[in-house]
């Protein structure tokens, strides 16, 4: 899928803890709740949390696919009950948002160097 300018839409999903990170998942096209469950929660989040014996609090932003009934039911069925309630419009509270900002900065620097 592309945007109105013909540029392919994609996003990168990742999870971090104080000491570790999940694998990065590249998602092409829009991410709905079913895809979020099937491509992120089931194959990445659940095994990661199980490896750590569910000793982490799972935090996600309030994107529709995150808070949709299908996603929240999956978390509940799989006993991921420590989901942090997240205030709307609060990316500054999310540790991974700071990491994404750093990656954007590095990406912009790389673009400048490639143009030279």
TrEMBL record:
- Species assigned in the record: Mytilus galloprovincialis (Mediterranean mussel)
What name does the UniProt record give this protein? Tc1-like transposase DDE domain-containing protein
Database matches in InterPro entries? RNaseH_sf (IPR036397), Tc1-like_DDE_dom (IPR038717)
According to the UniProt entry, its GO molecular function terms are: nucleic acid binding
Q: Which domain of life is it from?
A: Eukaryota
Q: Start and end of every Tc1-like transposase DDE domain?
A: 14-104
User: What Pfam families does the record tag this protein with?
Assistant: DDE_3 (PF13358)
Give the Gene3D superfamilies listed for this entry: Ribonuclease H-like superfamily/Ribonuclease H
